[in-house]
Design a protein that fits this description.
- By secondary structure, the chain is of the alpha+beta class.
- It is built from ten helices and 14 strands.
- The strands form four sheets. The chain has a seven-stranded mixed β-sheet with strand order 3-4-5-6-7-8-9, with helices on both faces. Strands 12-14-13 form a three-stranded antiparallel β-sheet, sandwiched between helices.
- Helix 2 crosses helix 4 and helix 7 packs across helix 10.
- The longest helix has 22 residues.
- The radius of gyration is 19 Å and the shape is globular.
- The relative contact order is 0.13.
Length: 363
C-alpha cells in the first residue's frame, strides 16, 4: 500500500510481529500472571510487556507522538514479582532487537514509565495532533483460555482515524466465515489486517512477512455497494453481561437474519471480521446508558470496515467520537452495516428498543 503513512505502517507491523512472539510465548504456559483489574477484567504479563514494547518502538521512530493504552503500571510497581516477570518476558526479544524493528525499554523503571504514558494518556480532541492508541491484548478473557485475541495499534490525528494495524495471531489470512473464539489458524502464521484512511483495507501473513516488504492482499470494498445485500452478522453471544442479548436477537429476527454468523468476544476482532468481509453488520446495545465503549477497543479497528464501504454510528445515529476521552462517553452502543443498508438497520434497532419498552436506552 503506497500511502503517506508507509513509514508508520512499517514500524507498526514490525512492532506487532514482535508483540505476537511475546503473546504466543505466554499463551503456551499455564501461569500467565493473570490479575483482576478494578472493572473485573483480567490482565496478564503479556498485556504489560506488549504495551511497553509498542510504546518504546513507536516512540523511538516518532518521538513527538503521544500515546493512549489500556494498562497502567500501578500493579507492577506494587508487585515486584510481577514486575520481574514482565521485564523477563521482554528480554526474550533483546537478542534480535538489532535485526528487528522493535525497540525495548532500557530498564524496568523506564518500562513502567512508558506503560504509564499510555495508561494516563488521552486522545485529546481535534487539536491533539498525532496520538497512537494501543490495546496490547484485546480479548484477554479468551487469550488466557488459548483462544482468539488481537493486538490493536491505531494512529489518530486530531482524534480522527488515519491508520489501523491489527495483529491476529489466531486468525488465518484466508479465514472463512463463521469465525468464533475457538477458530485457530491451522498454519500457525496468523494475519495482520491494516488500513490507511483513503487507501483501503489489506491483509497479510503475520509470521514470516518482512515489514520492509509487505506482500498484502487488498480487500474488495464489499460494503460500499448501493444495492441491498444479505446481512451477515458478527456479535458476542452469551459471554458478556454488558449487552442486551434478547434485544440483539430480536433485531436479527426483524432484519431477516437466520444465522448468528461470527461469534467473538474481542471487539477488535469483530471489526476485523467486518473489514475482511467475513461479516458485514454488527449491533451492540449496552444495558445502561452509563455504559460506554473504551477507545482502545475501537480506535483504528473501525477504519478497517469504513475503508471497505461500511458505515458506523451509535444506536442514536451519531458518528463515533474518539476524541472525547479514554471512555467514549458521547456515544451509546454501535450500529455498523453496509452504507446502503445502515439506515434500515438503525431504524430496526430503534424500533425494537421502543417495542420492548427499552426506549430509555435511546438518547
Amino acid at each position: 500500500m503506497d500511502s503517506p503513512y508507509s513509514q508508520e505502517l512499517r514500524v507498526a507491523i514490525g512492532a506487532i510481529q514482535s508483540a505476537a512472539k511475546l503473546s504466543q510465548a505466554v499463551i503456551s504456559i499455564d501461569d500467565k500472571g493473570v490479575i483482576e483489574k478494578d472493572d473485573l477484567s483480567p490482565v496478564t504479563v503479556a498485556d504489560f510487556a506488549i504495551q511497553a514494547l509498542l510504546t518504546a518502538t513507536i516512540h523511538h521512530a516518532f518521538p513527538n507522538d503521544k500515546f493512549v493504552g489500556e494498562e497502567s503500571a500501578a500493579e507492577l510497581r506494587d508487585n515486584p514479582l510481577l514486575l520481574d516477570r514482565v521485564w523477563e518476558l521482554l528480554q526474550r526479544l533483546r537478542e534480535n532487537e538489532e535485526q528487528s524493528l522493535c525497540k525495548l525499554p532500557e530498564s524496568p523503571h523506564q518500562m513502567c514509565e512508558m506503560i504509564d504514558w499510555c495508561g494516563f494518556g488521552e486522545p485529546g480532541g481535534s487539536n491533539a495532533g498525532r496520538v497512537w492508541v494501543f490495546d496490547p491484548i484485546d480479548g484477554t478473557k479468551t487469550f488466557v483460555q488459548r483462544m482468539a485475541y488481537a493486538i490493536n495499534v491505531a494512529l489518530l490525528e486530531g482524534s480522527k482515524q488515519v491508520l489501523s494495524v491489527v495483529g491476529c495471531p489466531t486468525l488465518s489470512v484466508d479465514a472463512k466465515s463463521p469465525v468464533t473464539n475457538t477458530t485457530l489458524d491451522p498454519t500457525g502464521r496468523g494475519c495482520i489486517v491494516f488500513a490507511a484512511k483513503g487507501y483501503g483495507t489489506y491483509v497479510c501473513h503475520l509470521a514470516g512477512s518482512s515489514p520492509h516488504d509487505v506482500q498484502a492482499r487488498k480487500i474488495e470494498p464489499h460494503a460500499e455497494t448501493t444495492s441491498t445485500q444479505a446481512l451477515r452478522p458478527v456479535s458476542c453471544y452469551n459471554m458478556l453481561d454488558s449487552g442486551v442479548d434478547d434485544v440483539h436477537q430480536l433485531i436479527m429476527e426483524n432484519l431477516g437474519i437466520q444465522t448468528q454468523g461470527c461469534d467473538l468476544l474481542a471487539w477488535v476482532l469483530r471489526w476485523v471480521t467486518l473489514g475482511l468481509g467475513l461479516a458485514n453488520m454488527t449491533v451492540w446495545v449496552y444495558k445502561k446508558r452509563s455504559r460506554t465503549g473504551k477507545v482502545w477497543d475501537h480506535a483504528g479497528a473501525m477504519l478497517l470496515f469504513e475503508e471497505v464501504g461500511g458505515k458506523i454510528t451509535d444506536i442514536d445515529g451519531k458518528d463515533i467520537d474518539l476524541g472525547v476521552g479514554r471512555k467514549m462517553v458521547e456515544n451509546h452502543g454501535f450500529v455498523a452495516a453496509p452504507t446502503a443498508m445502515h439506515a434500515t438497520v438503525l431504524e430496526t434497532v430503534q424500533r425494537v428498543l421502543q417495542e420492548q419498552g427499552k426506549g430509555y436506552l435511546l438518547g
